[in-house]
Amino acid sequence: MKHFLSILALLTLVACQPKDPVERKIDRLIAQMTLDEKIAQMTQLSGGQITENLENQVRAGLGSMLNSMGEEADYYQRIAVEESRLGIPMIFARDVIHGYRTIYPIPLGQAATFDLALVEEAARLTAQEAMQAGIRWTFSPMVDISRDPRWGRIAESYGEDTYLASEMGAATVRGYQGKDSIVQMAACVKHFVGYGASEGGRDYNTTWIPEVQLRETYLPPFKAALDAGSLSLMCSFNDLNGVPLSANKHLMKDILRDEWQYDGLLVSDYASSENMIKHGNCADLKEATLLSINAQMEMDMESHAYLLHLKDLVKEGAVKEDLLDVCVRNILRMKFRLGLFDNPYCALETPNYYNSESLATTQRLAEESAVLLKNNGILPLNTKHSSQNTPMTVLVCGPLADSQHDQNGTWCFDKVDSATVTPLMSFRQWAKEGKIRLIEQPGKHWSREVSEANIEQLKRLAKQAEVVLYFGGEESILSGEARCRAHLDLPGDQSEQLRTLKATGKPVVLTVMAGRPLCIGADIDAVDAVLYAFHGGTMQGPALANLIMGKVAPSGRLPVTFPQAEGQIPIYYNKKNSGRPTYNPVLYDDIPVGAAQFSIGADSYWLEYGDKPLYPFGYGLTYTTFEYGPVTLSDTILLQASSPHRLIATCTIKNTGHCEAVAIPQLYIRDLVGALTRPVRELKGFQRVSIPAGESRTVTFEITEEELAYWHLADGITLGADGAYAFSAEKGDFHVWIAPNSAEGEPAKFALR
Length: 753
Ligand code: GLC
What we know:
Layout: H1 2-16, H2 21-32, H3 35-41, E1 43-46, H4 52-59, E2 64-66, H5 70-82, E3 91-94, H6 107-111, H7 116-131, E4 137-138, H8 162-177, E5 188-192, E6 206-207, H9 211-218, H10 220-227, E7 232-235, E8 239-240, E9 243-244, H11 249-259, E10 265-267, H12 272-279, H13 285-294, E11 300-301, H14 305-315, H15 321-337, H16 356-369, E12 371-375, E13 392-397, H17 423-432, E14 436-440, H18 452-464, E15 467-473, H19 494-503, E16 508-513, H20 521-526, E17 529-532, H21 540-549, E18 626-628, E19 632-633, E20 637-638, E21 646-655, E22 661-663, E23 666-671, E24 682-686, E25 689-691, E26 696-704, H22 705-708, E27 710-713, E28 725-728, E29 732-739, E30 748-752
Parallel strand pairs: 1-2, 1-11, 2-3, 3-4, 5-7, 6-8, 7-10, 13-14, 13-15, 15-16, 16-17, 20-30
Antiparallel strand pairs: 8-9, 12-17, 18-21, 19-21, 21-26, 22-25, 23-24, 23-29, 27-28, 29-30
The protein binds alpha-D-glucopyranose.
């Protein structure tokens, strides 16, 4: 009996001991921490200057700082490590969203590449640069599903599709954090959750998202990023179904902690706890503090809520100190995973920024992120003038032809503008090499500028040129946080400039550098070719020159639907079919004046446009043409829970043109009948395939029950609030496409039995 009891005691002891040595170190630290020190560890304050107040906060055990870098960060870190009572290092954070010094295309542009490996590489190189400035935590990737181009933060997102955003976010996390046991730079997937559904596309606003849609559309990219190892995530500013995320226990505890078993760090957005007072779900900062901590918001960014009120709440018994221990544990675990206890100082005296690898990678990403929307044959430019064998005369103009600031887009505070290579700078180089004869149109530098003189000058110069290259779009300040636009036009008098240029009779190539889709159908109709390049970063100039001059064939595909007009928003490809889908819309101008009310079609469409966008998700042209063969399936029946429990879909793609180029076959699936209505198509896979002229390539995709599953209520369609949710596939008929975009292709059919 005695022997049995001693074994039992030993097992109990082992069972109580956290198995991981890091957890034991955390145990020992927490056991020494005072209540004040725990609260300080759960606080993040903004740096950017040396102040006595910040020195004192650091000395008292501050957990983290944002916006403090380089020598300043090391200065504060030395206080944290050498002067605070327990010497716990701080973690320094920054919004390194698409590059630190070297700037890469905005995430919306990166999504257009459909190139996961290159996006991961860009994130890896970004971390290398940022770490040299002591930054070990970035507030990226942003994976908010964005179906509303009025929303300025669509620029930071990977667009409208859940699968694409999931894949891109996971690739970015892998790139930032690296593959070693010590994490390079902690990712922070954001904004948890539903921020992109803000009413009117306005920031900090209201969202109403039913649970099934949360789970089907908005949550998967976060789950993918956390499964890829993201050490943290950030809550969002929006009010979700009446409860701002900073206090939303359903999302932050039921789903994040209990269902997903996440043990990483949850940080608030900037003063988002304090914002709850304005949202109106609490009366004051003390109540906001209670709501936030009860949702297990572990770190409070800059609302000072925890510093000011958490101690009282614990003393009053409203909050148990055990809950703070859980939060502190997650914070310390992240610091151990970053190796900060062993190596707290990272800023290098001679950092290596803008190295050749980074510049080459951002240029390639910029080349791949440009989407060719229209080409009447003018591109690629034939640089040899056919008759005299002399270089072609090219006019380079437009407000983004030479803007070293705006071409980088939103959320890049640490770049050096002079390092940016613009399109005009690149074409000067092409002219220097005798490949073109360049006419420059200096002057207009801001997209919102209006200038009659500028237009007159353009007219004169265009007459001297054989082709006009116009670089237009948006100033970088017009997208990003709190940059919602109600009109999605080309700002200023760009449209008038384009019409003026077209009236000269010269071919016009429009390149758009913007942070969002724009409703520019009329402008596109007016010109001969359109490259939609988003804001493309440090090397977008050489990238665009290579594309326009034909050194590189465009391969970008739209990660978001382009509306014809703002009135169509929200418009996205994976819509539901509606009860009267549009097959042959009768349009506004076709309706005879005085027509009887129901004498024309009665379908779900806009009278002005039918149900068609300007361009569909996944769309993009190149300098050759591809012919997609029929989709063939390994079987027309997929048996539920059988093995091998998968179908193989194949398609042969032929390059029917005259130059090698990249095709991006996309796998779409439709569930024809569901307990809940299902989208008309859903992206479930994609590949990048380079195909030489005249050759063919066969691509294959695997289809399993996982691709067919969706969130619905376990008992069918009882929409009760507590209906258990099931993620499963239902037997029935399916369509499958392997297509060049979300609007083309003929489906093959199969059944799940
Ligand atoms: C901002 C943004 C968030 C950013 C944070 C820190 O308000 O919403 O994306 O990471 O504050 O700068």
